[in-house]
Amino acid sequence: MTFRNCVAVDLGASSGRVMLARYERECRSLTLREIHRFNNGLHSQNGYVTWDVDSLESAIRLGLNKVCEEGIRIDSIGIDTWGVDFVLLDQQGQRVGLPVAYRDSRTNGLMAQAQQQLGKRNIYQRSGIQFLPFNTLYQLHALTEQQPELIPHIAHALLMPDYFSYRLTGKMNWEYTNATTTQLVNINSDDWDESLLAWSGANKAWFGRPTHPGNVIGHWICPQSNEIPVVAVASHDTASAVIASPLNGSRRRLSFFWHLVIDGLRKARRHLPMTRRWQPTSPMKAGRKVAIGC
């Protein structure tokens, strides 16, 4: 029998878990086992609503160490989280400012301001992403307006799954599925949109070009000194859920309990004609991902 043991780190806004997936190639069977489950939640710090990323990192490492202590050979590790939130780093890889959560009020009114200044249709046709007041586009604008003293110290902006992968490997990556939640990725170029970045106040040098899932970011060294590949999975949790679903054949529609509706086929091409036809009063025509409520 040929087995592959893959560890999945799945982080949500209220909890996280480290799962062991064992894939048996001959039988094409997959078994899942929960290794470690832990709480996540919002914190109040210096007037902001934040995430305790140090606690989350410790919980991730604890789960990984538990697998290693069982003597299981891990073939790969992948991390997914929620979207839009990020961690800022300086040139030495140390955090700058606070890891502010999407539920913080700092973005109040900024979505309407962006639509007025850039045009609602223009923003959508560039990004193809539904308008949500906590998208990274507005978070960065809030940051650069409200905390300009941080800007000279910022060298990198990593989205949550990329940050935890960096903490395990020392290597930086900007994975595509989570990057698109920022409302800053251009749907035509698959790269950061310079016009949207300019409005946000962020420097394009803070970001590397988004990479598609499947590449090895780096390696984590377990207590037994084994180097384990950390793979850039579809790191937005909804994207991972869709990829794990049997979307073969005809058109499918998936409805998730957190009211995300995904309509379309799991294909590399994007539905550009739909973004061109989209009317501001009819967000359900988007053809990518529509968030009704989180």
Automatic annotation (TrEMBL):
Any one GO molecular function term: ATP binding
Highest taxon of the lineage: Bacteria
SUPFAM superfamilies tied to this protein: Actin-like ATPase domain
GO cellular component, one term: cytosol
Domain (Carbohydrate kinase FGGY N-terminal): residue spans on this chain: 7-242
Pfam hit, one: FGGY_N
Keyword Cell inner membrane: no
EC number: 2.7.1.5
Keyword list, A-Z: ATP-binding, Kinase, Nucleotide-binding, Rhamnose metabolism, Transferase
GO biological process, one term: rhamnose catabolic process
Family membership noted in the UniProt record: Belongs to the FGGY kinase family.
Record protein name field: Rhamnulokinase
Protein species of origin: Escherichia coli
Phylogenetic classification of the source organism: Bacteria, Pseudomonadati, Pseudomonadota, Gammaproteobacteria, Enterobacterales
